[in-house]
Structure formats: C-alpha cells, structure tokens
UniProtKB/TrEMBL annotation:
Keywords: Heme, Iron, Membrane, Metal-binding, Monooxygenase, Oxidoreductase, Transmembrane, Transmembrane helix. It comes from Chenopodium quinoa. GO terms for cellular component: membrane. Its cofactor is heme. Its main location: membrane. PANTHER family: CYTOCHROME P450 98A9. It is a single-pass membrane protein. This is Cytochrome P450. GO terms for molecular function: heme binding; iron ion binding; monooxygenase activity; oxidoreductase activity, acting on paired donors, with incorporation or reduction of molecular oxygen. The keyword tRNA processing does not apply.
Length: 512
C-alpha cells in the first residue's frame, strides 16, 4: 500500500515539477500581472478593446493578457502582423470558439469559426470559386445598384418632404436599410422589404434572430467562468435558449430553401445567382451537409450586415467635417459622369479619388478594429516571444493602420495618400488589413469594397452634405462605440440637399 502512495506522490511531483519548469523556461510577451484563477478579467475597467489600446501604450506592440485560464496575445504593428500571417500562418489559422459560438456555428460547420482542417479548406474554396467569383460578382451587380438607388430614392423623399425641409436626417437609418436589403438578397435571393417600406414577416424574423443571437453572446461573454475551463461545468449554458434560437434560425432557412426549390420546379430552370441557390445546387458536388449550408448563409449575413454600413457612415462623417474633400470627390464625378446619368460600378476605374476615399475610410476607421482571434495549433514565436499552443492571438488592425512609424500623419483623414502610394488592402500589405490576410483572409473582400464604394459614390454624386443644424463640422462626435463592430458612438446626422435633376432619384429596380 505504501508503495502505491509513493508511486502516486512521485507522479504528482513530476507533473507539478514539469509544469513549473515549463513556466520558468517559456518567455511570454510582457503584460499586466494576472490574478490567480481569474487572470486579468477584472482589470477590464471599461471595454476590452479600450483596455487593449491602453496596454499597447504601456507594454509595446506585443503583450499578453490572461482571461481566466486563456492566454491572449495582442499584436499591434505591421512587422508582427507579417509574422502572424506569413511566417506562422498555418500554425495560427485555427479559431477559438466560446461555448455560445460553438452552439451557433454547430462546432465550426461553416467557414468563419471552423478550424484550419480539410473542412475549412473545402468551404473556403467554395466561397472563392463559386460564391465570390468575378463572374458571380458581376452577375449580382444589378442587385447592388438596385438597392443603392433605392437608398438614394428614400433619402430624396425624406429630404424634399416639406415637413423635413432644412431638417437633418439620421444617415445610419438609410445605410443600414440598404445594407440589409443588399446582403439578404445576396444570401437568400429575395427582398424582404416591400416598395412601401414595410418589412415582411420573414424579414422581421431575420432581424429578430440576429438580435437574439447578440443578446445570448453578450450574456455569456460577461461571465468570468466562461474563461475558466475547469469551472464551466458548474455554470452550464441555458441549453433551452440556445436550442430554441438554433431551431428558429434553421426553420427560417429551410422555409426559404423550400420556396426556392418550388420556384425552380415551376420554372424548370436552375437559377444559381443567390448564395442559397448556389449552395443547394452544389450540395451534392461538394458533399455539403444542411448544417454547413445554414452556417455559411448566416455567417455571410452577420459579417456583412453592420460592417458595410459602419464603413460608409465613417467616410461620410469625415467628408462632412471637411467640405473640401467632399467637393473634390464631386468635381471628379461631375467630370466623369456628368449630371445626366447616375454612377455605376463600371465607372469606378475612372474615379480614382472616390476609390481612395473608400480605402482611407477603411484605414482610419476599420469597422472591426480587431480581427477575430486566431488560435495557435502549436507553439510558435512572435517578436522573439514564445506563444504556447492554444493561445489566442488578436491582431489590432486599427493600431497598425494608425502607426506613425509606417503612416505619415496617421490620424488625418487624407485620401490623397493612396494616390501617392497604391497600398494593397486585401492581405498582401501588412500595413492595411481591413479584410485580414493569409489563410483567414475574407473571401468577400471585393464584394464589400464594391458596395462601400457604390454607396459613397451615389451619396456624393446625388447630394450635398452639411452638418446637422446648429452643429459646426469640428463638433461632430468622432468617437467610436468600442465594440466588436466600431460604429460611431453618436449616429451621424446631416442636412441633405439634392444636386441632380429629379428624374435621377428613382430606384432602378431589378429582379434576378
């Protein structure tokens, strides 16, 4: 019996000794001193991302912070970004899924939350080759232009209404409506908002499902035990609430899929323009499960919904603050397009300054200041420090895009900088990463960029924009919400004045 106790004690001693040895020999990045068990969880006095920005000033471009038992490494310059996305890309291509994200994504059945495994490679290939191919982007162009002109028409009706004359409009309202209609038509192949502006039951259900998802995630993320693995079993998730949400989402998706199937049977044609049509048609070819199709569809909705409207709102705020830039863009469009027709995406190649405005907005105000965290599948080195397996690596693309070491006057909104130097922003230049880079680069980058540029072009070509009544340009609130999607803290308001003939404010409706 004594020998058994001695053996157990020896094994325990060896395990503890090994763990201590590993901690003493590993060289972690600097960071705030963690407390036992909870780590730095309670050092987050305001918002997590605001604390990250404060700590980078104190600890430098790479630091580590513990949330419970999870090690998080934050990097904030382009050299370290290169190490993440080029030198250690494969080892840092996995995802960290919280329990709620695991429920929503069905343990990574889609693209966004899948680990870097054969499933991810297959789904990413489908997105690149099938969903976001140049051919499909062009085929869907009429829908983008339809919804952007619908936005222009809606603004025109409101700003010319005698009741609203000389009154400011809330810009975000129109941007969010245009984005919702664009993304849902892209994904589900139908318009949920009628010509009278009334949302259908399915459209309301989509919005309610998205709101419910956010509510469930926020309730979980604020709990310290979610970050302490060995404590999670004491605090189980509300399984009924998550099961209800997933069932509600899947039922809505199945309902829309059946509608498309019936329409195709009646017409005898296989239409593949929208994502839902394409994925159902390709299901057998790529051996896609229903869970994978549902996950992909909703990930596209979630990622596109807020980010596009946020980017355009920030750009418009900067142009209203500096009327000189607004006028310069309008002069370019007047010279290229004139006042007898409206802008189309085919005009972009002849509008370099407009493209620079879109790029500068994504640099100075990336809609997601931090990319989704990458999880280390094995131990790697970043900046000379050891990053253990299962650590989460956060890339602060906002800090990188405002780094004075690589950008001249980084806090100034100056589109001209991209006429002086053409900087790639699709993952090849690590100074500018609004769409990520490496194996995890966003496959829909070109679609998002086209839509942002189109919305900006129409808003500037059709209207003159000035600050809300009684507000000076310098008084516009340019603080952000410090959330995962960094919206303007105060929704932008502006006085809008048409500048083209009335007949150019009609929606150019199409039905593919």
């Amino acid at each position: 019996m004594d020998s058994i106790y001695q053996l157990c004690f020896s094994i325990l001693f060896l395990v503890i000794s090994y763990r201590i040895f590993k901690k003493l020999t590993i060289r972690l990045p600097p960071g705030p001193c963690p407390r036992p068990i909870v780590g730095n969880f309670y050092d987050i006095k305001l918002h997590k991302f605001e604390c990250f920005n404060r700590w980078v000033q104190h600890y430098g471009p790479i630091f580590s912070v513990w949330f419970g038992s999870s090690l998080n490494v934050v990097i904030s310059n382009s050299e370290l970004a290169r190490e993440v996305f080029k030198e250690n890309d494969q080892q840092l291509a996995d995802r960290c899924r919280s329990r709620s994200i695991a429920k929503f994504s069905k343990s990574g059945k889609g693209l966004l939350w899948a680990d870097y495994e054969p499933h991810y490679v297959k789904v990413k290939n489908i997105c690149v080759v099938e969903l976001f191919s140049p051919k499909r982007l062009e085929a869907l162009r009429p829908i983008r232009e339809d919804e952007v002109t619908a936005m222009v028409e809606s603004i025109f009706k409101d700003c010319t209404n005698p009741v609203n004359r000389s009154k400011s409009l809330v810009v975000r309202k129109y941007l969010e409506a245009a984005t919702f209609n664009n993304i849902t038509r892209l994904v589900f192949g139908k318009r949920f908002e009628g010509v009278d502006g009334v949302m259908s039951e399915q459209g309301l259900e989509i919005k309610a499902t998205l709101a419910n998802r956010l509510e469930l995630i926020e309730s979980e993320s604020k709990a310290v035990w979610e970050h302490i693995r060995w404590l999670r079993w004491l605090f189980p998730l509300d399984s009924k609430a998550f099961a209800k949400h997933v069932a509600r989402r899947d039922a809505l998706t199945l309902q829309i899929m059946k509608e498309h199937s019936l329409a195709h049977q009646k017409s005898g044609e296989t239409v593949k323009q929208s994502f839902i049509d394409a994925l159902v048609t390709l299901q057998e070819k790529y051996d896609l499960s229903d869970d994978t199709i549902t996950s992909i569809l909703w990930e596209m909705v979630i990622m596109g919904m807020d980010t596009i409207a946020t980017s355009v709102e920030w750009a418009m705020a900067e142009l209203i603050k500096d009327s000189r830039l607004q006028k310069k863009a309008q002069i370019e469009m007047d010279q290229v397009i004139g006042s007898d027709r409206i802008i189309t995406e085919w005009d972009f190649s002849n509008l370099p300054y407009l493209r620079c405005i879109a790029k500068e907005a994504l640099r100075l105000h990336p809609p997601t200041p931090f990319l989704l965290p990458h999880r280390a599948s094995s131990q790697v080195k970043l900046g000379g420090y050891d990053i253990p397996k299962d650590s989460n690596v956060h890339v602060n693309i906002s800090a990188i895009a405002r780094d004075p070491a690589v950008w001249k006057n980084p806090l100034e909104f100056r589109p001209e900088r991209f006429m002086e130097e053409d900087v790639d922003m699709k993952g090849h230049d690590y100074r500018l990463l609004p769409f990520g880079a490496g194996r995890r680069v966003c496959p829909g980058a070109q679609y998002g960029l086209n839509l942002v540029t189109s919305m900006l072009g129409h808003l500037l070509h059709h209207y003159n924009w000035t600050p809300a009544d009684g507000l000076m340009p310098e008084d516009i609130d340019m603080e952000d919400s410090m959330e995962l999607v960094a919206q303007m803290r105060t929704p932008l308001q502006a006085i809008v004045a048409p500048r083209l003939p009335d007949h150019l404010y009609k929606r150019v409706a199409v039905d593919l």
